[in-house]
Design a protein that fits this description.
Blueprint: H1 2-40, H2 64-69, H3 72-84, E1 86-87, H4 89-96, H5 100-113, E2 116-121, E3 124-129
Antiparallel strand pairs: 1-3, 2-3
């Protein structure tokens, strides 16, 4: 029985050393992360992200800040509409490669968010970027 107690004690000592090593590594990682966080604070003003006014606009006239706030699926729709300047859901769908019904839903979401306006011409519905974008 004494040999089993000895083995158990040795295993526990080894585990304690490994846990101490892991704890030390975690503390170093946390210190490094905190250092990076401290360095990044104030690096870019929240509103401009370090860009001048002209750098905040994509070639299609879209504001980069707006595009970055949008989820990927709406961003793709917005960029496709910007290429068309004005278009129907099926035209946007041709550019994005998604179904017309999906693009129609996304365009309506963008309209509710105020980024896109809806234009009705007879029985056709066209979408265009809002004047502010």
């Amino acid at each position: 029985m004494p040999t089993q107690d000895n083995e158990t004690r040795l295993v526990l000592e080894r585990l304690e050393k490994e846990i101490a090593t892991i704890k030390l590594l975690l503390e170093q990682i946390m210190a490094s992360q905190q250092e990076l966080i401290d360095k990044s604070k104030g690096a870019y003003p929240p509103s401009s992200y370090g860009q001048t006014e002209s750098e905040g606009v994509v070639e299609d006239g879209l504001d980069v800040g707006i595009l970055l706030r949008l989820p990927d699926h709406l961003r793709k729709t917005m960029l496709a509409l910007a290429k068309l300047i004005e278009g129907r859901a099926d035209e946007v769908a041709q550019i994005t490669g998604r179904a017309r019904a999906i693009e129609s839903g996304y365009l309506n979401q963008l309209m509710r968010l105020g980024y896109v306006r809806k234009i009705r011409r007879k029985h056709q519905i066209y979408f265009a970027l809002s004047e502010g974008d």
